[in-house]
Automatic annotation (TrEMBL):
EC number: 2.1.1.33
Protein name as annotated: tRNA (guanine-N(7)-)-methyltransferase
Gene: trmB
Keyword tRNA processing annotated: yes
Family per similarity comment: Belongs to the class I-like SAM-binding methyltransferase superfamily. TrmB family.
GO cellular component: tRNA methyltransferase complex
One Pfam family in the UniProt entry: Methyltransf_4
Residue numbers binding S-adenosyl-L-methionine: 58, 83, 110, 133
SUPFAM superfamilies the record matches: S-adenosyl-L-methionine-dependent methyltransferases (SSF53335)
Length: 227
């Protein structure tokens, strides 16, 4: 029987929106440099980044402001961003060029397939998933990225002592996330429920808009157990 993770349901919809000439040009000229093509084979991250360093995976980098800011603030770590929306990829590539970042790479493919097939076991020191699509309608909850099987897969790729950091501004999704993470025996919460926003995660335009609308932002930070 196939794993639930192999099903065809996707946790995203390709809402491309406006694709500017600058973003298009960045994709054409910079993605061959900073992009990693999808492959069904395990990749060598030391070879890709040209060094051995802590590795952080970001799933759904959006327009890239947060990803680039964190990578810029932490040059001692390498960052791998997974994103499928071309305008966001183009925007992040522009930021990589502007900030002259050498510690950031992008994979444009489905996150589940990338993690399953490309990333070695216990190769990650941290995983960021900031504001994933909440799919608020009950009939769409099956599309939510944060599900037990997906978290179990991440735990196989996170090193003992590494962390998983989620953030959302949807109360019901936050409650769902908290329960899923609590139910995973390889994870331990760093807080009683929700954690304070750490200094390394900047406020995004999206987040600021949510705050103006009265949304409460919730961070969840769990540590991968050693056993």
């Amino acid at each position: 029987m196939s794993s639930p993770l192999s099903r065809s349901i996707r946790s995203y919809v390709l809402r491309q929106g406006h694709f500017s000439n600058a973003q298009r040009q960045a994709c054409e000229t910079l993605l061959p440099i900073y992009g990693i093509p999808f492959t069904e084979n395990t990749i060598d991250l030391d070879q890709i980044f040209g060094r051995s360093a802590p590795r952080i995976l970001e799933i759904g980098s959006g327009m890239g402001e947060t990803t680039a800011a964190i990578a810029s603030q932490q040059p001692d770590k390498d960052f791998l961003a997974i994103e499928v929306h071309l305008p966001g990829i183009g925007s992040l590539l522009e930021l990589i060029r502007k900030l002259q970042l050498t510690n950031l790479r992008i994979i444009s493919h489905d996150a589940v397939a990338v993690i399953q097939q490309m990333l070695p076991g216990q190769s990650l020191d941290g995983v960021h998933i900031f504001f994933p699509d909440p799919w608020p309608k009950a009939r769409h909850h099956k599309r939510r990225l944060i599900q037990p099987d997906f978290i179990a897969l991440l735990c196989e790729r996170i090193k003992p002592g590494g962390y998983l950091h989620l953030a959302t501004d949807w109360q019901h999704y936050a409650e769902h996330m908290l329960q899923v993470l609590r139910d995973e025996p390889r994870l331990t919460n760093t807080a009683t429920d929700y954690a304070p926003r750490p200094a390394y995660r900047p406020l995004t335009k999206f987040e600021q808009r949510g705050l103006r609308l009265g949304h409460t932002i919730r961070d969840l930070i769990f540590i991968r157990n050693s056993a």
